[in-house]
Amino acid sequence: MSKAEIVKPYKKEHGTSYTSGAYATLELLEARPELVRKVFLHSACAHSHQLLEKCGEHNLPAVWSDEAFRRVNQKENAYVLGIFDKYTSALRPDKAHVVLVHPADMGNLGTILRTAVGLNLSDLAVIAPAADIFHPKTVRASMGALFRLRFAVFGSFADYRAAYPDHAAYPFMLDGQELPEVLRRAAGPLFALIFGNEATGLPGEFASVGTAVKIPQSPLVDSLNVSVAVGIGAYAFAGKFGLVG
Prior knowledge:
The protein is α/β, with parallel strands linked by helices. Helices cover 31% and strands 22% of the residues. The chain has helices spanning 22-31, 48-57, 66-72, 106-118, 136-141, 157-163, 179-185, 226-240; strands at residues 16-20, 36-41, 62-64, 80-85, 97-101, 123-127, 150-154, 168-178, 191-195, 213-214.
């Protein structure tokens, strides 16, 4: 393998990242082929025909190289790497948003990306500091759903709100009106569902930015995992406004 083909371990300051695994790489090739620099295949890859076909459709280089996987692979059963350029995007002002305030766990973040896309909520705001949305762990947890949505990172929630003041805000908190009651009164499909950090949730002042929502739960646990809470809240609102069947 030439020097030009060496894959370096991921660093946030790099302008590129990579998918790890066949499924995420196929999603990248389907949704964002213009971002792809190269696809690496391991000799044990079982999906090579489909991947090579997709690379051929977009005239993208595919390289067989077990060495690339020894350098960067984080999962022993991942036999495909898709090197891609990082990118920026903007949220659509006429679509509903999911807002994540300081998400810290890359696995949770990736799961939320996949859930949001699955529920046709394809606009995501991330309030920094936050887990790296381009880290290979996040991309892998999303199963490539990252490439199917629009996202933007904001320095503060105030910055997000200034950019999108017209969305009805629904911060999900332990002290709030119960979700079924909020849904009954929700007026329209232009909304922002706001979720806090895995460890601390949303600060109390978020209750004043909109209608605080509480997901009913048993007293046997203190709170739900944030990715589960997003799934419940997003499904409820998506169903209410006909975003999913």
